[in-house]
Amino acid sequence: MDEKTLDDIISQYDAPSGRLLGILGEIQNRERYIPRELLEMLSAKLKIPLSHLYSLVTFYSFFSLQPVGDHRVTVCMGTACHVKGAAAILTTLEQLLCLPEGVTEETRSPVTTEDNAFTLEIARCFGACSIAPVLRVDNHLYGYATPDGLPAILEEYGWRKHED
Questions:
Q1: Do 44 and 10 fall into the same domain?
Q2: Who contacts 152 (Cβ-Cβ below 8 Å, separation ≥6)?
Q3: What global pTM score does this model have?
Q4: What is the rounded average pLDDT for all residues in the chain?
């Protein structure tokens, strides 16, 4: 993103309430993540400490400092989901997406496939405990998820079984 585009985004958000979140959200939507150089530019333009911008970006799970795939797959790891098998969902997704097993929980940060098609991440709770275990792909929630049902869900987003 160039400086003029950033200026255009900034000019759309002149109300103090929610201004920073709106600007950061627009950057995230356009770039699919928030690059450090854009945070530095925004810091200088708005005369806001870079540390303040980082605190916002790292607090809200919507934002990412790393490039994300075309589709975000998020597994709920809240208590209800965990008890009903979320760990098996996560492990199966790692296998299906050819990611190292355990990497998502180990790093506690999103992990993206080599082809940038999918980013796998975990969340604390979706508030959908009655249909646990739950996962979200982009903005679509899938309840009562099972490891066996995951290939069909991923296929909706263009995934194809990896042939070894």
A1: yes
A2: none
A3: 0.72
A4: 92
